[in-house]
Specification:
The chain is an alpha/beta fold. Helices cover 42% and strands 17% of the residues. The protein has two domains: 131 residues, Rossmann fold (3-Layer(aba) Sandwich), CATH 3.40.50.12500; 103 residues, Rossmann fold. It is built from nine helices and eight strands. The radius of gyration is 17 Å and the shape is globular. The two termini are 30 Å apart.
Length: 248
């Protein structure tokens, strides 16, 4: 018998324990008959993040991911959704593929991850190869993001790392600061803008920015959830989150 509320699909969502944005974002995009079951990846909140410590902290999250996978699998989800982006960009496309295989091997079901979801979004939106990237990360992590996109055939011509001082501080970045960053990133040499970092609140701002910039602006939470829905044959269209969910 199907689940009484998740009769279309039950999603197991994996996200850092410090993340307060991805869960409400995914719930806002949840169609009727789909349910999200959040499994928190234990993540000590850093009091001070630097270029040197960011990767170490993100790798801690990566190491703890399989514990969260084992926990959420007890509710028998149909599919997994990764609500943390940094670990899905490490070591380029090969690293992303390796991460996906490791999780899917442990879970026995498939997963959508932010890096590959953003690539799928760029392709379906027919973006050109020149992109700009906005992140809450530090420059060293932005270089990993650029490396991944280069592997996928895209050139990061400009990027901004907001250098948030702690994991929880990412969720405190204002809409005004993000809007100003988008303006700085835009230009005639940019075909699309991609925002990474799932604890950065951007899904509605990105949708609005598409209208005044006249080009794709992809928020990673939108791309990841859209990818999970479409991978499961759920084709519901939704307004308010940009062209991706409204048209594709």
């Amino acid at each position: 018998m199907p689940d009484a509320q998740g009769f279309r699909r039950k999603f197991g969502v994996l996200g850092p324990s410090t993340n307060t944005i991805v869960q409400p974002d995914f719930d806002a995009m949840r169609p009727y008959g789909v349910t999200n079951h959040y499994s928190r990846i234990f993540t000590p909140n850093a009091n001070a993040i630097s270029d040197e410590t960011f990767r170490a902290g993100a790798e801690t999250i990566g190491r703890n991911t399989l514990d969260a996978v084992r926990s959420v699998m007890t509710c028998n989800p149909d599919y997994l959704v990764m609500g943390m982006s940094a670990v899905t960009f490490f070591d380029g496309a090969a690293g992303a593929d390796r991460f996906v295989k490791e999780v899917e091997r442990e879970a026995g079901i498939r997963i959508s991850v932010g890096s590959h979801a953003c690539t799928a979004a760029l392709r379906v939106l027919n973006s050109g190869p020149r992109i700009a990237v906005l992140s809450p990360y530090w420059p060293a992590m932005n270089r990993e993001v650029a490396r991944y996109f280069a592997d996928m055939g895209y050139t990061v011509v400009r990027d901004i790392a907001l250098r948030c001082p702690s994991w929880t501080a990412i969720a405190e970045v204002s809409t005004e600061r993000c809007r100003e960053a988008l303006k700085q990133l835009d230009g005639p040499d940019v075909d699309a803008i991609v925002q990474v970092g799932t604890n950065l609140s951007m899904v509605r701002l990105a949708a609005a920015a598409e209208m005044w910039l006249g080009k794709p602006v992809i928020a990673i939470n939108t791309a990841t959830y859209w990818h999970a829905l479409r991978a499961n044959g759920i084709m519901d269209r939704m307004e308010g989150f940009g062209r991706l969910l409204a048209e594709f």
